[in-house]
Amino acid sequence: KNEVEQSPQNLTAQEGEFITINCSYSVGISALHWLQQHPGGGIVSLFMLSSGKKKHGRLIATINIQEKHSSLHITASHPRDSAVYICAVGYGNKLVFGAGTILRVKS
Amino acid sequence: KAGVTQTPRYLIKTRGQQVTLSCSPISGHRSVSWYQQTPGQGLQFLFEYFSETQRNKGNFPGRFSGRQFSNSRSEMNVSTLELGDSALYLCASSLRLAGGNTGELFFGEGSRLTVL
């Protein structure tokens, strides 16, 4: 069983909708990363967090250490947000990745 | 500030050959980590180097190896290639945080390896 569970696996939304992607992990971690991957392979780090909440523009990431759960929210979604979103948990300097969430935002 | 550079971007090899991939980190980043991405297994951690020393290794056979040079540039090598080694190989550089944890990751574009 994957130590990192992401949901949903696939998500289709209409432009402007509020989107939530969830990530659960099984044991204590040093940090959690949210990554974005566009077709063609390039990966961009969106957030790295170990507690609380972070916000960059329309993106918000939260983490609940006690519940071992993190969420990535996208407000006012746009077709350019279409990508694969990947949660990765850090155990020191080793990362374990979720399977990813394929997001498609339709205009 | 230049990003993470990986070379080559694409390569084709045949079974039994060996391959070497290169990664140049962002200036000032001394931590370099490598990842394999396949459609079936997703992203998997290969290994991490800091100050020319391998600090952690994922669950891969000994055919996968790497090294880091004094300028923080890193190479990974796969010997005796198998069909299943076909994948996108990504490297990322980061600063090392207090306690030895990995900081924010900056990824290269990847090297796409096809094994025939």
List the helices and strands and how they pair.
The complex is a heterodimer of chains A (107) and B (116).
Chain A: E1 4-7, E2 10-14, E3 19-25, E4 31-37, E5 43-49, E6 52-56, E7 59-64, E8 69-74, E9 83-91, E10 94-97, E11 101-106
Parallel strand pairs in A: 2-11
Antiparallel strand pairs in A: 1-3, 3-8, 4-5, 4-9, 6-7, 7-8, 9-10, 9-11
Chain B: E1 5-7, E2 10-13, E3 19-24, E4 31-38, E5 42-50, E6 53-57, E7 64-68, E8 74-78, E9 87-94, E10 106-107, E11 111-115
Parallel strand pairs in B: 2-11
Antiparallel strand pairs in B: 1-3, 3-8, 4-5, 4-9, 5-6, 7-8, 9-10, 9-11
3D structure, described in words:
- The complex is a heterodimer of chains A (107) and B (116).
- Chain A has strands at residues 4-7, 10-14, 19-25, 31-37, 43-49, 52-56, 59-64, 69-74, 83-91, 94-97, 101-106.
- In chain A, a hairpin with a 4-residue loop joins strand 7 (59-64) and strand 8.
- Chain A has 107 residues and is an all-beta fold.
- In chain A, strands 2, 4, 5, 9, 10 and 11 form a six-stranded mixed β-sheet that branches. A five-stranded antiparallel β-sheet of chain A has the order 1-3-8-7-6, with no helix packed on it.
- Chain A starts with a strand and ends with a strand.
- Chain A contains no helices and eleven strands.
- Chain B has 116 residues and is mainly beta.
- Chain B has no helices and eleven strands.
- Chain B is globular.
- The model of chain B has no long low-confidence stretch (mean pLDDT 94).
- Chains A and B meet through strand 4, strand 5, strand 9 and strand 10 of A and strand 4, strand 5, strand 9 and strand 10 of B.
